[in-house]
Design a protein that fits this description.
- It holds the Pfam family Acetyltransf_8.
- Keywords: Acyltransferase, Antibiotic resistance, Transferase.
- It comes from Floridaenema aerugineum BLCC-F46.
- Residues about 1-15 have low confidence and may be disordered.
- The chain has a 9-stranded mixed sheet, sandwiched between helices.
- The protein has a single domain (about 10-150), classed as Aminopeptidase.
- Strand 6, helix 4 and strand 7 (about 150-155) form a beta-alpha-beta unit.
- It is an alpha+beta fold.
- The chain has 5 helices and 9 strands.
Length: about 200
């Protein structure tokens, strides 16, 4: 997959709420990302973080008030941007796109100042097991590579999360090594622009 030959990517209209959207013919759906809006998205994200398939890997099964404080802090953090991922306009996933500079993972490897990273979850149980994770990840990775100085996108999924490690691998991310982070034992993975 190359950015230059991506015939399905397009910029949203000026009045669109989405910052990036594209039609993916493999799943016959429109993938779109919009920035998290606290008052609008708090109940949604709170619900997703308390789903059984999310709890072991995110450790954010908080009550609503604590989740609001967590999101307020995350939204105020200028090294990351929070997104809601949608399929055909339906919100179903949560994303954190971050600059490695300023993140704890910067201690794990010799990073370039323009390196980006991704955290993600599919929150809605009805969207699980349907092959959506890979097209969504490809779309977000492509979006991050729109920043022309970014040559590498990284991920550090929990080492226990073999399904997501497999999805990252299929998207072009390569396992570098296992690393210890404050909240998990992780697989450090890189996706270089050229290989993507």
């Amino acid at each position: 997959m190359t950015l230059l030959n991506s015939t399905f990517a397009y910029s949203p209209p000026q009045d669109s709420q989405y910052i990036w959207e594209k039609f993916d013919p493999e799943i016959d759906k429109r993938i779109a990302f919009r920035k998290v809006v606290l008052n609008q998205d708090l109940p949604l994200i709170h619900n997703w973080m308390n789903q059984p398939h999310v709890i072991p890997f995110w450790n954010l099964a908080l009550d609503l008030e604590a989740m609001q404080k967590h999101l307020e802090k995350a939204l105020a953090d200028n090294h990351q941007t929070l997104y809601i991922g949608c399929l055909d306009g339906v919100p179903m996933s949560y994303w954190e796109a971050y600059w490695v500079t300023g993140d704890i993972v910067a201690k794990a490897y010799e990073f370039h100042p323009e390196d980006r990273g991704i955290h993600l979850l599919i929150g809605e149980p009805s969207f699980l097991g349907k092959g959506y994770a890979l097209p969504l990840l490809r779309a977000m990775t492509e979006f991050l590579f729109q920043h022309s100085a970014t040559e590498k996108v990284i991920a550090e999924p929990d080492i226990r999360n073999s399904k997501m490690i497999h999805v990252f691998t299929r998207c072009g991310f390569e396992l570098q090594r296992e690393i210890e982070l404050p909240d998990k034992h992780a697989a450090l993975m890189f996706c270089d622009r050229q290989s993507f």
